[in-house]
Amino acid sequence: MQTKIASYFGRRRNWTIPYVLYLALFVLIPMLLIVFYAFANNEGELSLTNFRKFLMQPEAMNTFIYSIGVALITTFLCILLGYPAAYLLSRMDSARAKLLVILFILPMWINFLIRTLATVALFDFLKLPLGEGALLFGMVYNFLPFMIYPIYNILQKTDKSLIEATQDLGANPRQVFFKTILPLSFPGISSGIMMVFMPVISTFAIAELLTINNIKLFGTTLQENIYNGMWNYGAALSLVMLLLIGFTSLINTESNTKAAEEGNLI
Amino acid sequence: MQNIANDIITIEHLSHTFGDKTVLKDINLSIGKGEFVTILGPSGCGKTTLMRLIAGFLKASGGKITIDGKEMTHTPPHLRPVNTVFQKYALFPHLNVYNNIAFGLQLKKMPKEEIQKRVMQVLKMVIMTDYEERDVDSLSGGQQQRVAIARAIVNQPEVLLLDEPLAALDLKMRKDMQMEIKAMHKKLGISFVYITHDQEEALTLSDRIVVMREGVIQQIGTPTEIYNEPANSYVADFIGESNILNGIMIKDSLVSFAGHEIECVDKGFAPNEPVEVVIRPEDIYIFELSEAAQFSGQVTSCIFKGVHYEMMVLTPEGFEFMIQDYHQFEVGRTVGLRVKPFDIQVMKKERHLNTFEGIVVDKNHVKFLDQTFKCNEAQKFAVGTKVKVLVEFANVLLHDNEEEGMLSGVVSFILYKGNHYHITVLTQDGDNIFVDTNDIWDDADRIGISIMPEFIKIENI
Predict the structure, then answer these.
(1) In which domain, by residue range, is A143 found?
(2) Are residues B169 and B262 in the same domain?
(3) How far apart are CA A194 and CA B53, in angstroms?
(4) Whether ipTM exceeds 0.85
């Protein structure tokens, strides 16, 4: 008996069983359920009503497009603010840079709901109106570290001799940046985009709190439907978002495999 | 070649420091148009720093660099007519072979057809045609090396700097690439500055060799000059194999070493001046003991080295000679040795004693090298007198355990002198202490140093 157990654990393939079970239970089956719910009507019959409703109902569609817009702007602002920060950090001596990186990441250790509530309080205190501006501020504030870190990581690992080779071949400092440093850091930027764009589309708390429920994002719509028992419609909306995520990661795959090889993907 | 008008690079009194560490001291060097100059030295001798100063990646702490008649000491790298082949190639991973090579020309905004023509030309030169679309990551080490060279020479620089370009290749490939680099130099007609720690590579490739050690140029000369007439025991030991012995120059053309007086061709030394004698192992004749022998001895080891045998012979006076010969003499055989006068290279001794600056602390103590040593002679001097401290090489004691010594240091250079080792120890404060010993130490050993009170001699400055 003992030898039987021993041989069972001895086979390396058997070690994967708990993980396979975990994936099946918590990823695969729920996914299938989403797909099933999305293609079923309230009576449980196969139908496309949910998708028809999404395409026909301007409200959901508008929210969806608006959300993508917010996500695009947030991502763009994050790159605009995050890249220079990451670049400066990568140029500092490593001890000081490490400290600063920790300072940048520090707010992430606080629950983001609390952080967002604090942002609301801050806006109230400064007598700034809540709304679209506050929403963008909150988004950028929350997601900026996710952009800075992968870019910093890749910039900091850039081979110095490549920069020297660029100078050696006749590039002035500006050309060194645009011809070598920037292209070499693309995998970092694309990691950053993945880390920012996707979550922005699906967050709802930031939008709710910073716009006093005036602006709805796609995440909010989703949450409302599920909350109100509209399981089938909610599932269809989830599926739309999943497809969007899948599509974006597909575009990213190539640069990400490269980044992952170099260990830059967090 | 020393003609100023023909020099492409002139370096005057160049020095460089990292923090408080001096890595280059007063470098003076000129490189002729079309010349192949190799900068040779062990790691840490400052050769890479020198190259980086020429390329402009580092800012000189002092001195002057003139390239092609223009003072360029502080010119940024992109404005220098110099291109570099980097040690690890530094090819751009995001560009293919063609775009790597075209990089410099594209920066110069050269017309596309011209770029195409020149890239194809250099690809042909480095024998890499048909590779232009390849990803650089998919190339072998040797191929990457070729692309790196192509990327540099396509810009038609006045000077090509090569930083240990063959260090990452295996032996066979290295030999082939050496020949190719030499052929390329001939074809291009530009100056090559080649950095290496491999003395054989330096001898094979160069018109002139610059031997460096600890940031100081030891000797500049053609390969044959460096090999046959090394300037000091360091160069003799670093380039090829050699027997280095202490000797005394009795008079012109007569030197005494290893217990015998031997005829030589060197002149101009003071009578009875202590000197160092260098004899290459292939310059010693070995034969059955006979009248013709200058030295007799017994073979203690004999190793076959492919073309020749390498034998160690111990003389009755206790000196060991390394000999290379096509004939084999078995271990234990008694043999005779002979050296022709012009095969003996006599060198001035750089130093005969350790000398330090010190100060008398009290009746029994003198302070030097930041340490207070007990000293029997201190009583002859008033307290506070600044003195010169002299310690013979053989009177410095070395300890395995760093704590046992009064000072600690690292073995930085070992020279075998036939019957003892002459060791250079670098102390923590960067001072050199020279030691003669029969004990065997290894490079980079951490050791303790102490000196007995009776062996510390002091005199007025």
Answers:
(1) 49-261
(2) no
(3) 42
(4) no
Which residue range forms the structural domain that includes residue B170? 4-233
Distance CA A219, CA B312 (A): 85
Residues B271 and B218 in one domain: no
Q: How far apart are the first and last CA of chain A?
A: 44
For residue A104, the distance in angstroms to the closest alpha carbon of chain B comes to 30
Q: How far apart are CA B7 and CA B356, in angstroms?
A: 41
Residues shown for chain A? 266
- Residue in A170, A184, A186 nearest the CB of B78: A170
Contact B254, B290 (CB under 8 A): no
pLDDT in tens, A210-254: 888 888 888 888 888 888 888 888 888 888 888 888 887 777 665
Of B322, B348, B374, the position where a domain reaches its end is B348
Number of domains in chain A: 2
Pick from B77, B82, B92: which is nearest to A162 by CB?
A: B92
Phi and psi angles of residue A200, each rounded to the nearest 5 degrees, phi first: -60, -40
Residue B215 and residue B117 share a domain: yes
pLDDT in tens, B261-311: 999 998 889 999 999 999 999 999 999 999 999 999 999 999 999 889 999
Identify whether residues B109 and B212 lie together within a single domain.
Answer: yes
User: Given this model, what pLDDT does residue A54 score?
Assistant: 83
CATH number at residue B132: 3.40.50.300
Judgement on whether residues A25 and A71 belong to the same structural domain of the protein: no
- For testing the chain A interface, which of B48, B54, B57 should be mutated: the one with the most A CBs within 10 Å? B57
B196, B112: one domain: yes
Q: Tell me, what amino acid is at B403?
A: E
How far apart are the CA of A81 and the nearest CA of chain B, in angstroms?
25
Q: Do A104 and A20 share a domain, yes or no?
A: no
Of B56, B86, B94, the CB nearest to A165: B86
Mutation for testing the A interface, residue in B54, B94, B153 having most A CBs under 10 Å: B94
